[in-house]
């Protein structure tokens, strides 16, 4: 759980870059703006490398070639003296490429043919978080939150060169997708400096989509919580 610092400067930004062996590049930029009742923060990062191999006799690299991009946007506004709205959006995308070997033969008595396979892996994630905070009384706080997250990963193997099956055809493919949604309402009341009561309710909806599951499994739960 990483909670970033809220910046109060009217305008602030920066750019950082690093470059190293194996064409490794790490580039990031951030920008934050704020006014009397609002603030915005933007962050973007791109990291890539051609990877490397610790075993020169292996067709597969120890660290595969990869590239990933992260985008994070955070905004907040003070609507009134007793109402605030905050939102966060995050996007992550990653690609990986590598080579692998596989055995293929049509009959047990035949010579086994070694296939060179191109491995492509993808991973994407979207996350949105919205919070409406209310202070209707001096000791009472109300928060209405909604969190939504979508995660997807895929892996595909395709033959390369003169091989059977033909180059470019899909040798193996897997996909996984998960959706997670959680609305929540909570209230807190401060009796005095020593006593604080917090309670609320929420709901979780979790959906999965993958080849190893029949249909689209869905998990739904409702919950209550109270602490003092």
Strand percentage lies at over 45%
Q: How are the strands of the biggest sheet laid out side by side?
A: 1-2-3-4-5-6-7-8-9-10
* Helical content class: under 10%
**How would you state the average pLDDT, rounded?**
90
Total count of strands: 10
Order of helices and strands: EEEEEEEEEE
For the record, give the distance between the C-alpha atoms at the N and C termini, rounded to a whole number.
23 Å
Over all CA atoms, what is the radius of gyration?
25 Å
Give a short synopsis of this structure.
With 228 residues, the protein is mainly beta. It has strands spanning 11-20, 24-34, 38-49, 65-80, 83-104, 113-137, 140-159, 172-190, 196-210, 218-227. β8 (172-190) and β9 (196-210) form a beta hairpin.
Task: Set out the fold topology.
Blueprint: E1 11-20, E2 24-34, E3 38-49, E4 65-80, E5 83-104, E6 113-137, E7 140-159, E8 172-190, E9 196-210, E10 218-227
Antiparallel strand pairs: 1-2, 2-3, 3-4, 4-5, 5-6, 6-7, 7-8, 8-9, 9-10
């Amino acid at each position: 759980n990483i909670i970033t610092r809220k910046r109060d400067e009217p305008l602030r930004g920066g750019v950082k870059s690093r470059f190293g062996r194996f064409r490794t590049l790490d580039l990031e930029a951030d920008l934050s703006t704020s006014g009397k009742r609002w603030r915005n923060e933007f962050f973007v990062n791109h990291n890539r490398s051609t990877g490397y191999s610790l075993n020169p006799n292996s067709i597969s690299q120890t660290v595969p070639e990869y590239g990933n991009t992260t985008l994070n946007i955070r905004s907040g506004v003070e609507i009134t003296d007793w109402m605030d709205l905050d939102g966060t959006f995050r996007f992550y995308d990653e690609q990986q490429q590598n080579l692998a070997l596989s055995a293929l033969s049509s009959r047990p008595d035949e010579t086994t043919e070694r296939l060179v396979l191109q491995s492509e892996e993808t991973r994407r994630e979207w996350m949105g978080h919205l919070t409406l905070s209310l202070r209707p009384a001096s000791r009472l706080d109300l928060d209405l939150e909604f969190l939504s997250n979508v995660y997807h990963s895929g892996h595909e193997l395709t033959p390369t060169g003169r091989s059977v099956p033909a180059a470019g055809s899909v040798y193996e493919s897997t996909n996984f997708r998960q959706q997670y949604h959680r609305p929540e309402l909570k209230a807190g009341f401060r009796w005095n400096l020593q006593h604080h009561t917090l309670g609320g309710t929420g709901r979780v909806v979790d959906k999965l989509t993958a080849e190893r599951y029949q249909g689209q499994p869905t998990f739904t739960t409702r919950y209550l919580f109270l602490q003092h």
